[in-house]
């Protein structure tokens, strides 16, 4: 699917400054990404196109932290695709629109580019709530699709690989990803980790409130009609409930290294 798309006009400029939502590859990495192409067999040549890692999982599963660490370790570019839905929601709110209005949300989604992914307000609760509303709209999802596929196939900074994390990367956005990871944990564990994270930032939080919020977000993400949260059949599932983040990183890094080797990148 991705190999058939024209990839001539990247929506993300090269190079792109590092941001929490989007980071480029290591300076000096081979410019394989720019040479991504489809071989005579119809398949992309190993070593000529970027290596793509899809990471999916529920909210607060640790997939974002993992994606960032893997990207840094392997010199890959990283895109937090949740930021695209958050940026869409923020744009609607900034223009006093209604995030539940599909026309307003789709028009906003069509205006998203890398420059909109750096706004610190993307992390606010109101924006997260509106993001889950716009993310349920098929028109919004399809408006953001090319942008995600383009990032994967043409990673900024001449990175030789890309890592996208979200809910539907392995199932919808990039079903031909070289490696798919599904990162999960019980909702109670995720709530405890989120409480700790917020407390570390100096916030006063109540565990039960966070637990309820995550339970509701899980339900919205999993039950929606359009691209619901689910593990791809060929995804490697890592349940982090009993695992420390360093162990999760080691396991995931070993899977990436094995896949790179199997596919002739190393
Ligand atoms: O991961 P996050 O909390 O930043 O995601 C924000 C919202 O976007 C959340 O409701 C899930 C949704 N989302 C999605 O539907 N598909 C993605 N690939 C990424 C996020």
What are the segments in which pLDDT stays under 50 over at least 5 consecutive residues? Answer: 1-19, 26-45
The major sheet is characterized as: 6 strands, mixed
What CATH first level would be assigned?
Answer: Alpha Beta
CATH superfamily: P-loop containing nucleotide triphosphate hydrolases
The oligomerization state is: single chain
Q: From the 3D coordinates, which CATH architecture would you assign? A: 3-Layer(aba) Sandwich
Describe the structure.
This protein is an alpha/beta fold and 266 residues long. The chain has a single domain (5-251), classed as P-loop containing nucleotide triphosphate hydrolases (Rossmann fold). 42% of the residues lie in helices and 11% in strands. It is built from 10 helices and 6 strands, in the order E-E-H-E-H-H-H-H-H-E-H-E-H-H-E-H. The chain has helices spanning 63-74, 82-94, 102-109, 125-134, 138-143, 145-153, 169-173, 187-200, 207-223, 245-262; strands at residues 22-23, 51-56, 77-80, 161-166, 179-184, 236-239. The chain has a 6-stranded mixed β-sheet, with helices on both faces. Helix 2 packs across helix 3 and helix 8 crosses helix 9. The longest helix is centred in the last third of the chain and has 18 residues, at 245-262. 44% of the residues are buried. Mean pLDDT is 85; it is low at 1-19 and 26-45. The protein binds 2'-deoxycytidine-5'-monophosphate (DC). 2'-deoxycytidine-5'-monophosphate binds next to helix 2 and helix 4.
């Amino acid at each position: 699917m991705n190999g058939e798309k024209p990839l001539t006009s990247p929506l993300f400029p090269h190079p792109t400054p590092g941001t929490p939502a989007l980071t480029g590859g290591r300076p000096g990495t081979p410019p394989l990404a720019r040479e991504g192409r489809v071989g005579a067999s119809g398949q992309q040549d190993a070593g000529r196109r970027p290596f793509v890692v899809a990471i999916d999982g529920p909210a607060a599963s640790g997939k974002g932290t993992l994606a960032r660490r893997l990207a840094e370790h392997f010199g890959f570019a990283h895109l937090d695709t949740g930021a695209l839905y958050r940026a869409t929601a923020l744009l609607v709110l900034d223009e006093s629109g209604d995030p539940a209005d599909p026309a307003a949300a789709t028009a906003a989604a069509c205006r998203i580019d890398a420059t909109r992914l750096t706004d610190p307000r993307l992390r606010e609760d109101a924006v997260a709530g509106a993001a889950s509303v716009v993310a349920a709209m098929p028109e919004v999802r399809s408006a953001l699709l090319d942008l995600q596929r383009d990032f994967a196939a043409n990673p900024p900074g001449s990175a030789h690989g890309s890592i996208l994390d979200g809910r539907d990367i392995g199932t919808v956005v990039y079903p031909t990803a070289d490696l798919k990871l599904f990162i999960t944990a019980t909702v109670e564990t995720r709530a405890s980790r989120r409480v700790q994270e917020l407390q570390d930032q100096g916030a006063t939080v109540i565990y039960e409130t966070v637990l309820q919020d995550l339970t509701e977000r899980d339900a919205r993400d999993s039950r929606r009609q359009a691209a619901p949260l689910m593990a791809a059949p060929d995804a490697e599932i890592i349940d982090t409930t009993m695992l420390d983040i360093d162990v999760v990183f080691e396991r995931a890094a070993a899977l990436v290294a094995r896949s790179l080797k199997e596919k002739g990148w190393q």
